[in-house]
Write a structure and sequence with these properties.
The structure is a single chain. It contains two helices and no strands. The chain is mainly alpha-helical. It has one domain. It is flat. The model has no long low-confidence stretch (mean pLDDT 85). It comes from Streptomyces indicus. This is Secreted protein. Keywords: Membrane, Signal, Transmembrane, Transmembrane helix.
């Protein structure tokens, strides 16, 4: 990739990131909407389980299924 294409790709990536940040700013608003009922918050362990442990377990399960499927194909050939 030459310098011009690299510069163009960088500019597109930076522009896209900037536009996404600008468009998502209302999501950070502190005002409550009508009918908003957020419920109770998550504990630290629930948060870690949901956003750290669950994706790792899901990745391992999918990777394991792919490896099992791949090994069975190699044995048949």
């Amino acid at each position: 990739m030459d310098k011009k294409n690299a510069l163009r790709a960088g500019a597109v990536a930076a522009g896209t990131t900037l536009m996404m940040l600008l468009m998502s700013s209302p999501a950070l608003a502190l005002t409550r909407d009508d009918g908003d009922d957020p419920g109770t918050g998550l504990s630290v362990m629930e948060t870690l389980g949901l956003f750290v442990v669950a994706p790792i377990v899901l990745f391992l399960v999918i990777a394991g299924l792919v490896m099992v499927g791949d090994k069975s194909r190699k044995q048949q050939g």
